[in-house]
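re: the backbone from monday

yeah here it is again, tokenized this time
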């Protein structure tokens, strides 16, 4: 009886390769996943460069030209989705087409493995892009505005524009006198910058004492009345809060578009791997 069972097992192994395949063959073809990963990452970088050249990462500074902020946001988000879909499709297809053919494996299992190969290709490409291509991608996206960033440390401060608004000279003040006064008193600008930065960092209003002190600095430097200085401080703080809210809203929208692009990329890679695997099995 034992000899008959051994003979049956040998026949099954010889005819379908089921026993040997399940014992020795790996369900994961890492070489195919690696090929799809590098193709995905390279295409992503290329499409980002193309998008920058086509204007998807920049907006015209002139009011009479370019696109609106809403159109810019939607266009950029849609291009992120197209980039993820195209790059992930190519990477997933390569992973499915280049993987080793599985012998004597059920059709449903082949379907699952192909899907897993496409998903793993997308996941590895996402990690590789974030870890190794982040600097290159940032340089491409921000390259259009690099020339505008050549400023001194003080001018490059995120609150410099608001400090300028606070200490704008009063009407009737001589331009030369105002410039000399500003150059001779950098301590006041530094103090105002620190107060504004603290407010922005804590996401809280200035304390009444800090607000009063800031208005006194404005009065001393610009010659405006105390009431006008208080109004100027209130106007500048209100504008700064509005700008910060817009920046946070834009960041949140970008995060949502990026999430949608990643989900669509994962789906595209999985479906493309299934197609590539089926074509390989038919022709294999």
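seq for it, each position gets an aa:
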């Amino acid at each position: 009886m034992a000899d008959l069972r051994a003979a049956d097992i040998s026949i099954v192994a010889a005819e379908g390769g089921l026993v040997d395949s399940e014992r020795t063959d790996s369900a994961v073809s890492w070489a195919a996943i690696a090929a799809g990963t590098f193709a995905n990452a390279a295409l992503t970088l290329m499409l980002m460069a193309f998008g920058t050249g086509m204007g998807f990462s920049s907006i015209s500074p002139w009011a009479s030209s370019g696109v609106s902020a809403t159109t810019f946001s939607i266009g950029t988000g849609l291009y992120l989705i197209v980039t993820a879909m195209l790059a992930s499709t190519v990477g997933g297809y390569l992973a499915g087409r280049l993987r080793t053919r599985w012998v004597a494996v059920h059709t449903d299992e082949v379907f699952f493995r192909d899907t897993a190969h496409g998903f793993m290709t997308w996941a590895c490409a996402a990690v590789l892009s974030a870890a190794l291509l982040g600097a290159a991608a940032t340089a491409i996206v921000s390259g259009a505005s690099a020339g505008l960033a050549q400023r001194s440390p003080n001018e490059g401060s995120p609150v410099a524009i608001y400090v300028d608004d606070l200490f704008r000279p009063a009407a009737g003040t001589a331009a030369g006198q105002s410039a000399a006064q500003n150059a001779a008193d950098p301590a006041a600008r530094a103090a105002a910058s620190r107060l504004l930065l603290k407010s922005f960092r804590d996401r809280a209003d200035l304390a009444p004492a800090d607000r009063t002190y800031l208005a006194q600095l404005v009065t001393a430097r610009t010659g405006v009345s105390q009431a006008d200085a208080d109004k100027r401080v209130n106007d500048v703080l209100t504008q700064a809060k509005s700008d910060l809210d817009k920046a946070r809203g834009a960041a949140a929208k970008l995060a949502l578009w990026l999430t949608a692009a990643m989900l669509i990329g994962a789906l595209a890679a999985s479906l493309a791997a299934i197609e590539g695997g089926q074509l390989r099995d038919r022709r294999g």
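The chain has two domains: 2-20+28-142+257-283, 160-246. Residues 160-246 form one domain.
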